[in-house]
Structures are given as C-alpha cells and as structure tokens.
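Working notes for the structural subgroup meeting. M.R. asked for a predicted model of this chain before we commit to crystallization trials. I am recording the input and output together here so anyone reviewing the notebook later can reproduce the run.

Input as submitted:
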Amino acid sequence: MDIINAVGRRKASVARVYLRKGKGDITINGRSLEVYFPQTYIQNSMVDPLKTVEVEGMYDIKINVFGGGYKGQAEAIRLGISRALVKIDEDNKSPLKAKKYLRRDARVVERKKFGKPKARKSFQFSKR
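Returned structure, recorded in token form:
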C-alpha cells in the first residue's frame, strides 16, 4: 500500500497528513507527537479518529502543519487524519461522521474594520 494523503484546515492552520502502513509512529514537522504537543488532552483529541475506527498502531503518520496556534493546528490534524482514514476505507466514514470529525469548522477571525479598534468594538461614546 502506498501513501495516502489528506488536508485538514481550522482557523488559520493547514495540516497535510500522510498515512502509510507501519508501527504507529506519529511525526509532526519532523518532531514526535509528545514533543510537538506536550499536553496529553491535545494528543488524545488528535489520535481519537484512529481509536474510533480501531486502527491505532497500524499506520505511520507524517504531518506537515503551519499557521495558527496549537489548538487550531491540533484540530486541523484531526480533520486531516479523519479524511485520510475515509480514503483508506469507506466504511470508516459513518463512525467518524457520528463523532463530527469530518466536519470542517469554518469559523475564522473576523477582519478589523476601519474607524474601530477591533472588528466590532467601538471607541467610548461621549454624549457631551
């Protein structure tokens, strides 16, 4: 089996995920999962699609991710892994869809408007 690739996005983060048969090694930007994301709850949320379809330890995963913060990057990676698992086997789609791992969260930061300090915040109003 050759390499399966997929893209996941969240906020300003873009993750390119490459899956191949292996021992279960996860590499993010050349570093291991534990080094790149030291928080265990983020590690667990990232590999949850693998646990959902019961294939953890079967695939080596190489990830290139850039942009945004650690939370956005983790969710982008989760979407990319989910999409790659669906490419491998179409039967994986229903359990992943039930947990909403295949849904692209389209919420992004609203742009700043002119005449305002932030996107919606206004300067203090003085009546007199």
